[in-house]
Amino acid sequence: MVDPAGRIVARLRRPTSAGDPDKLRAQVVEVAAGLAAQHPVTAVGIGAAGWIDAGRSVVRYGPHLPWRDEPLRDAVAAAVGLPVVVENDANVAAWAEYRFGACAAADPGATMVMVTVGTGVGGGIVLGGRLYRGAQGIAAELGHVRVVPDGRPCPCGRRGCLERYASGTALVEAARAGARADPAAAADLLRRAGGDPAAVSGPMVTAAAGAGDPVARAAFAEIGGWLGAACADWTQILDPHTFVVGGGVADAGELLLAPARAAYAEQLGRRGRYPAATVTAAVRGNDAGVVGAADLARGG
């Protein structure tokens, strides 16, 4: 339950039935109905990981969920008797940062690009003060822009996508490779992993990098470099006011943002002589999706 100022005033949580589309839909209905029974709810906003149609009603494809052409809006609306809006999860997070987070003080007509760096790389674009969805509703899949021709295979079916080089998955892969190549330099990282490079996890890399481990820091520099270079490319297309970086990996702060900013400045080339977007951290954290979905359902 989110108030008009973007404050969360009540929560209900349930474990996700990620393998059963019917149970998952029923859980969404249960949570929405439970909150509506306790509070003066006027609309329901849903942030779902996947491709959402232009009508903001159908989950066309969920890469990590069992939904395929799932008419989620109508199913929930029929069950709870309220207007429902379904949006992509990165889009709702971007909207929350624009309205109530990192860009809350920006001009209402500003353009913002949000990049979410987690297991993969997601994105959301607010263009001239409006959330940009594209013709089919599937815009801003920033993690699936190809950065390396015939590069690493991606679960989306393409090769060389950005998320294969700038995500939490890429961070762990780089750290494991570094630990195998130079165990002495990765002493702290390997200590956390029980001596086994294959056991290295994302939180271990972040902790070791924070403690100064050279291999862990190099892994952050690698993915930050890819992220910064991508921001320079997007600047040529969109010329935004701000890039906002969020997601679980971005919680590492300057470990990721410092190399990203350095690569961004370098890759801007002559464009860097003129005013260009700033690169800043998201501030709403894991609440961003909840807040953004609610505000968009309210008509934000």
From TrEMBL:
The entry's family comment says: Belongs to the ROK (NagC/XylR) family.
The organism's place on the tree of life at top rank? Bacteria
- This protein's species is Pilimelia terevasa
Q: Which PROSITE patterns match?
A: ROK (PS01125)
This protein is called Glucokinase
